[in-house]
Amino acid sequence: MTAVAGEHIPLTRHRLAQRLRAAVLGPRGGGTTRRRASDAFRLGLAIVVVAVSIPVMRANSAAELAIVRALNPPPAAISWLVTTVFWLGSVGVVALLALIGPLVPRLTAIRHTAVAAVLTWVVCILIRALLGPSAGRPPHSALAGLNTGYPVILLAVAVAMAATALPYLSRPVHRLVWFLITVAVLTGVSGGQALPVNAISSMALGWGVAAALHLVVGSPLGLPTAAEVAEWISDLNVAVADVTRAPRQVWGVEQFTGRGTAGEKIELSVYGRDASDARVLAKLWRFSVYRDSGPTLILDRLQQVEHEAYLTFMAGRARVMVPEVLAAGRFGPSKDAALVTGVPDGPILAQAGADIADDTLDEILRAVLRLREAGLAHGTLGGDTIIVADQGICIRGFRSASASAPVSRLDSDLAAALAAMAVQAGAERTAAAAARVLSAEAQHKDLLPQLRQAMASRAGIEVPQIAEVKRVSWTNLAFAIGSLIGIWALIAVLSGAGSAFEAIKGASWGWVALAFIFAQLPAFGSAWALLGGVVGELPYGRCVALEVSNAFTALAGGNVAVFAVRVRFFQRQGYDATAAVSSGAIVSTAEWVVKALLFIIAIPFAIGTFHGLSTSGGAEQTAVWIILLVILVAGIAVALITWVPRLRRLRRQATSRVRPHLVNIWANVKTIATEPHKVVYVLAGCTLAQLVIIFSLGASLHAVGQHASIATLICVNTLAAIIGGIIPVPNGAGVVEAGLIAGLTAAGIPQDQAVAAVLIQRVCTAYLPPIWGWFTLAWMRRREYI
């Protein structure tokens, strides 16, 4: 008995040591590191926060001053406590990480943390040298006696060290460190060691340095090794031997294989602490790139395992062979979540070879149809999730599956299965299997191009053709005349801009940078509007790329070309010509409706700021002449259409041709109106696109030392947009500038500053974006998105 007890003591001590280690350190992960997409996102976000915070600091905003007055100074009785907590959350965190670092096997964590600290300190010194010790913040009586220095080096270094070291540490330590840093920021503001914006920007600075370092050297996976899984999987009351890491991995989920007690094949899906990051970014990626963003976002690891197990059971009930679920739950000291399944022996479809039997191809499609009948979408169906076993076709990997799936997601499963089959058996044999098994209704034009022709010919389905892009020749003369008007207006604007260029030279470049950032955001808002303007789903990333490319399209061909490219894009995404035209019309109309609504809302608040147009300035005279010319041309056009018989006949013919399109557009509008979120997408996207342009104009005014209310800027921008929209000038060149300058001077802005602000804003919004718009347009054409 003594010998037996003696044998168990080392095991117990080992487990106790493992438990204690897990309380402080994260999973070893075999020492593997990886460059994560989330680090790139963090780096980009940090750069934006730091860039935006600099002009905010220089503005000494009333909100920031109000926060300082509310928190500073702290009560005299606890001032010592506030100071102590600040030092504890900054220097104390650095000391804590220095003590825990040596516990990590290998010295990787210590080296990376030290490098992050040094890099952050160097970056802080460089920023101070470039911007000055206060980053250009003007002195203010409310800030007397407070530390206005930027960056706050203690906070930046503490955050950089924490963000670098925490992937090696356990979640309780994560929470403790971030709690201390958060308290340090609050007490730092209260005790006068830092100002609110300075503190937030310094945290973003340290966070960005750590993210950049992780992109260079990688960060731990946060997943257990095969040895750790083999040791702790018994927590789930299942015995697995010969655990090895699978050759193919999915980010955030570690795949292992093993053997059960009877020698059967077992697969383990282990969700580590990176699982939430993987899920979020996968959702964002699918939302940006694909028409369907996939199943509902699940952040908790255990819920992800339960979701996969539930969908596996549901697929089994739909008479589809699936892996046997042996266990699901948390295991090990890090409480990772795992799904343990038994799978039949047999090759996956990707390894089945070209001699795969026709009966097997038919059975694959029948299995997909059974899932379809049950409303289950697999989400990642392909050559590695279909097992060709002796017992039949087995489908595995339901982590991205969804129940009550929309038809588009079910169609994607069918297309994915056909593509995987075609890779092994060829397009002709796959088309033959589809003709034998699938109904004609199941064969959609959204299937892969190589399969579409063969399947359509066998099933008798007409292959849909995309309408060719046609030049609108009758607009060439109008554009030529409009271009002459624009050149005339632009010359008139620049002829008196000598003093304005001096104002541009003395502009605050922090505000210019903010105006530039605002000027790039309309594409993201317009992309949201595109999502709402169609029935079904669109990939958000492609919509953003389309709107970026439209900056070049608008400069080259005006609003007509933008509308044509949007229609072409909708067709490339699988919509027929009628739906594409109606969707493009919905988005274009919504943009003007939003402009009108914003103008109506703003005019009561802005009417008092306009004092009439002076006729002494060249820009104002140009704007007045443009408005009179537009009215005159419109009047002549109406008179000719009304009185000339031939033009009346042309009007009736045009009306008869347009009416069917209007009927289709109205039907599409009614369909979209039944989905409230689509309406929100259209209105919110168009509103955001308009507001950021207005914010860009406001930032440009601040850059030259002037300002105007939002309501005033809305009115000025809307009237200028109307002038630019009526006159067929590509991108409104010249006429929009004249309208903006006239509106700003009427609102009390000195002419030189108005001209300078408008030139800054128009360069950022109209003349620089076409550069990267051209490259984006070329990329989209190569990818056949337009």
Structure description:
The structure is a single chain. The protein is mainly α and 786 residues long. 65% of the residues lie in helices and 6% in strands. The chain is built from 28 helices and nine strands. It has helices at 2-24, 37-59, 62-71, 79-100, 108-131, 153-165, 171-191, 196-217, 226-232, 275-289, 301-317, 358-373, 407-425, 427-437, 449-459, 475-495, 498-505, 509-519, 522-532, 540-572, 577-606, 618-643, 645-673, 676-703, 710-726, 735-746, 751-767, 769-782, and strands spanning 33-34, 219-220, 241-245, 253-259, 265-271, 324-331, 336-342, 386-389, 392-395. The strands form three sheets. Strands 3-4-5-7-6 form a five-stranded antiparallel β-sheet, sandwiched between helices. A two-stranded antiparallel sheet has the order 1-2. A two-stranded antiparallel ribbon has the order 8-9. Strand 3 (241-245) and strand 4 form a beta hairpin. The longest helix has 33 residues, at 540-572. Mean pLDDT is 76; it is low at 1-11, 453-461, 466-495 and 613-620.
Could you name the key traits of this structure?
two-stranded antiparallel ribbon; 786 residues; mainly alpha; flat; five-stranded antiparallel beta sheet; 28 helices; disordered N terminus
Number of strands: 9
Mean model confidence by pLDDT: 76
- The parts where pLDDT drops under 50 for at least 5 residues are 1-11, 453-461, 466-495, 613-620
Query: What is the tally of helical segments?
Result: 28
Helix content: 55-70%
Structural class based on helices, strands and sheet pairing: mainly alpha
